[in-house]
Amino acid sequence: MSKATKDGLRSRQRLARESAILDAARQILMESGFEAMTMELVADRAMITKPTLYAYFPNKLEIGVACMVRTVRRADGEALLAEEGLSPVDRWAVRVRMRLEDKFRSPEITVARPDEPIRTHPEFRQALNELTEHLASIVSDGRQAGEMDTGIASKVAAFVFISVVANVGFEQLIADGRTTTEDTLRTLTAQLTRGIQPRAHQHHNEETD
Amino acid sequence: MKKPTESLRNRQKQQRREAILAAARALVTEIGYDAVTLEMIAERAELTKPTLYAYFENRDDLILAAYLRVLENSATTRADLEGISSPLARLSIIVRRVLEANFSDPDSMYAWPPNPIANHPLFVTELQTIRNDLESLVRQGQALGEIASDLDPAVAIQCYFSVAGNYLTLRRLIDGGVVDAPTLIEQLHRFILQSLQPPAARGTL
User: Fold this and answer.
1) pLDDT band at B37 (very low <50, low <70, confident <90, very high)
2) A112 falls in which pLDDT band (50, 70, 90)?
3) What ipTM goes with this model?
4) Is the Cβ–Cβ distance between A42 and A22 less than 8 Å?
5) How far is A11 from chain B (nearest CA, A)?
6) Which of B3, B67, B135, B142 is most buried (most C-beta within 10 Å)?
7) CA B40 remoteness from chain centre
């Protein structure tokens, strides 16, 4: 075996193990929260020793942050490729569909709103800001092209998108049998696209009384 | 003279109760459910501890009441809905009421309740009642063609909850100077209503 192949194998193994650590951390974060998470618990759950865990992450905050950043950045590359050459409305629709499919078809990656030390961590904030800016730029283009509602600020639209994607109440509804993954995907895709499209006329005048 | 005085006192009592509940929610959001004490709530609401006991039996009851109060904002049985027959118009009023309660007063800040509250039988039952009522409004709106027929009512209501209840994140738009509170309320309301309406009714493009 050549050195290059061995290195490739090693780095693949490393990535796989890192991913297993983050999966373990995610489960613990979802079940008991950041405060209750310890390096022992993560090592146990990932079925590795504590020294091995420390070779990957210096402390539990770094694990928690990496876990959340992975969630925020997931599917970004694919979405960017899929967006190429499309109109703003279609770019938004692609983002919505890919994010939601990722959220509901890969439940093992979903993490609820993070606890305090993670939420304010610069790395997590940066990942979130990048996503917000990208979403807002799509809406901003769409507003200029007259395809999207100018009555909703592009950042507000981006935050709405993130609020829906980050909410784990949908997974609960599916788990409780009150809806299905397919119905959730269809409904949210429709709502997130229609919600920011311009309306020609108001159909519910009573609301302003 | 007796009656007006009585109603004034009732109103004061009501206001004080609201202030206590708001203080409790703010503290739970800031320092966590376990850390909040009755003393802290009293201090935050600028009242004495004995006064608090005149309103609530103990700390747990008080905090539970604080979150039940939030659910009340979503109720379909309030006076502001009287005489409004259109389901979409009723939803519009409820959504506005909730957004205003959540976003216009920076002191009323709260996040989704902590587990001891979220799993409390009373809270669970109350939330389910509200969900059922709102979902039934969606179904009525769908039957009348006011609400898109391709939406799953349970998901549509959760979508509204996920936006209207994401106080801590959306609040950043106000704190960051992107929009002011009334604009944010207006725009979130607009999104939620448009997200429910059928595309044809809005004549897109």
Assistant:
1) very high
2) low
3) 0.85
4) no
5) 37
6) B67
7) 23
Cα–Cα distance, A198 to A122 (Å, whole number):
36
**Whose CA is closest to B187, among A194, A204, A156?**
A156
Taking residues A45-61, report their average pLDDT.
Answer: 96
**Contact predicate B190/B104, CB 8 Å:** no
User: How far is B8 from B2, CA to CA, in rounded Å?
Assistant: 10
* Set of chain B residues whose Cβ sits within 8 Å of the Cβ of A190: 148, 150-151, 195
Count the neighbouring beta carbons within 10 Å of the beta carbon of residue A42. Answer: 25
CA dihedral angle for residue A52, residue A58, residue A62, residue A67, rounded to 10 degrees: -10
What's the N-to-C CA distance of chain B in angstroms? 62
Q: Nearest CA to CA, how far is B94 from chain A (Å)?
A: 10
Nearest Cα to A166, choosing from B161, B42, B196?
A: B161
| pTM, rounded to two decimals | 0.83
Interface test with A, best of B93, B161, B162 (most A CBs within 10 A): B162
The residue type found at B83 is G
In three-state form (DSSP H/G/I as H, E/B as E, the rest C), the secondary structure along A75-135 is CHHHHHHHHCCCCHHHHHHHHHHHHHHHHHHCHHHCCCCCCHHHHCCHHHHHHHHHHHHHH
Which amino acid is located at B58 in the chain?
Answer: N
Alpha carbon distance B152, A178 (integer Å) = 10
Give the whole-angstrom CA distance, residue A150 versus residue A172. 34
- How far apart CA B190 and CA B184 sit, in angstroms, is 10
Q: What's the start-to-end Cα distance of chain A, in Å?
A: 78
Residue B114 has what DSSP assignment? P
Residues 53-82 of chain B whose Cβ lies under 8 A from any Cβ of chain A: none
Cβ-based contacts of B154 with chain A (< 8 Å): 173, 178-179
CA-to-CA distance for A51 and A38, rounded, in angstroms? 14
